[in-house]
Amino acid sequence: MYISNIEVKNYKNFRSNIIEFNEGINVIIGHNNAGKSNLLKAMALIFNPSTKKNLTIDDFNKTIPLEELKVQPPSVNISITLTQEEKEDLMGDDLVVLSQWLTKLEEPYEAKIHYEYCLPLKHHEDYERMLSTTTSILEAWEIIDRNFLRLYTYKIYGGKLDNQITVDGEYLKKFDFQFLDAIRDVERDMFSGKNTLLKNVLEFFMDFDIKSNEGLDDDGKRLKIKDEKRKFEEQARNLMDSLNERMAEGKKQILSYSKDIGASFDNAEPNFAGSITDIELYSALKLIVEYQTGIQLPITHNGLGYNNLIFMSLLLAKMQVNASETFLGNNAKVFPMLVIEEPEAHLHPSMQRQLLKFLKQNLRDTKVRQIFVSTHSTHITGALSLDELICLYKADYETQVSYPGKVFGTNEESKKYVQRFLDATKSNMLFAERLILVEGLAEQLLMSIFAEYVGMSLEDNHVAVINVGGKYFDHFLNLFNTNNPAAINRKVVCITDRDPERKDLTIEKGSYKKCYPFEMNIEPSKYEYKINEQGLECPPNIKFYLQDEMKGKTLEYELACYNPTLKELVTDSMSNKEEIKDMMELYKEGKGIDELYSLLSNSKENARIINALKQGYLDWKDDEKKIALIAARYLNSVGKGVNALELAYVLESNLAKRGTEAYKDFMVPDYIKEAIEWVCKN
């Protein structure tokens, strides 16, 4: 059996949610306050015996409407469903524990456990009377806290909730819920032999070579372990005799004081005696770090990251102890689960990945039944399969859940593409509250700076910019397409280029090749034309923004079109720098287009540009042609990667001069400005 889902009602940020789980590892992701920790705490209310079961007023979901509060006292309900695993024969201990909680008696079997925290029925009349006149939601919660919360009780039921069958606590103890929370002091919790947890582990693994010897039956193992204990006791007795010899004279001096003070009477006096067992000696053991040089240091001298890893390994060892029926008899656990909150705490990226491999190996070795992890780490999510991820997020102030692995349906091609794409950097799209997806590096580097120029901050609005490496938006939009209930409901902007193209019809099997906007449709008998028209059909939370349909091409082209006199756009890595600056100067002076033509070097590409702009049926004004000429030459002179870095530096430096005479006006292209404004708008 495995925990297949949990239903949470009116607990903390959960109004009413069902979260589905996988058989093995479940990694719960989401932005801050999305409810990751609260989900684990909801599970703990049922499975963790050390979790306080009585709640506070702040544990209730506070979005319950006032009219609903007046009619019915608020209650917290948590239901967990356990389902038979594929190819699992439900026999033995699982069946013994779950038999009374079964709700589905055919395969795959299902069982349910419910936690309910509510006001007993006999107090409902007083409750309704006291809340009947309140007009404020705050006042209602104050009345509940002051007058009724002390009367609330909790129950844990099994099977169908209507039957109200109370769960036997002894059966509930069969679940080994090991919870490692985010705020942990592993040195305090584990690394001394005086600690019960470590002591239990040491006791279990003492004489493990005998306990795991398959050539011995149980009686043979007991006899050999008994013999080892006897040998130790003999050695310990010799040790104690040696200590007593060394203390003989000293003892006389110590005990003389007791005689002088009158502590000896009735022919009796104090003395020293004792023995030590192997179990008692555990308290003297402590974890150390031993280097190849032989140097030993206390574990407390280790970094927090390594100690966290050691702690988790010992915790899994303890779970092995807890599951041993030979060692614990009827007290053995049958359902070990490991729950870790923010495992990335104190771990650098490579150690996070190592931890993930370690946890998965323990699943394969069946040392743990299920693992639940909450994380903010993109390094962890980047190393997981999409099917192992559960995304919690808020939309319209309500907690929602998404399953990235389920949004693709039968589209395995897109799923595989996104899976390969989601490295530590790009998996940030699963955490961000809003997204801008772009084609390439230039847009990725410049988008945040563009936002500053239009008076907005992507960071303040929790917008992440993700470079999808081309026009591959459709693959990723599966994750956010709200027509699919498993998708993440996020505002997503896709910024892409028009990229006009044409195909020469006079060439057999000709292919589309890039062209300029001013070449579009000027020779319809010779060429077939097309432009990028992505984003024609999108759900309301997704929008595409492109350049002008008739005059747009790429980002670099647009930058020059909107800023035809801004020489700062001409960066050091560009070719034809002086030519472009001279053209900008002539345009600024209002010179004719022929003077701009005269600056161009003799080349096949320049001749093509001039020829297209001189076409008589191109319905463009001279000013538009001059701008297009500068933009075309600018585009052809750009080396994208390096230029984007240089341009980002130039524009950022210019921003710092805003309000001074040194500041240069820079116009953000309209399609980018509109995209930023839409994604940042609440």
From TrEMBL:
Alphabetical list of SUPFAM superfamilies matching this protein: P-loop containing nucleoside triphosphate hydrolases
Which residue ranges does the record assign to the Endonuclease GajA/Old nuclease/RecF-like AAA domain?
A: 1-380
Ranges for domain OLD protein-like TOPRIM come to 430-499
Q: Note whether Coiled coil occurs among the keywords.
A: yes
InterPro entries in UniProt: AAA_GajA/Old/RecF-like, Bact_Antivir_Def_Nuclease, P-loop_NTPase, TOPRIM_OLD
Which Pfam families does this entry report, sorted A to Z? AAA_15 (PF13175), OLD-like_TOPRIM (PF20469)
Q: Which UniProt keywords apply?
A: Coiled coil
List each coiled-coil range: 222-253
Q: What is this protein called?
A: AAA family ATPase
Originating species = Metabacillus mangrovi
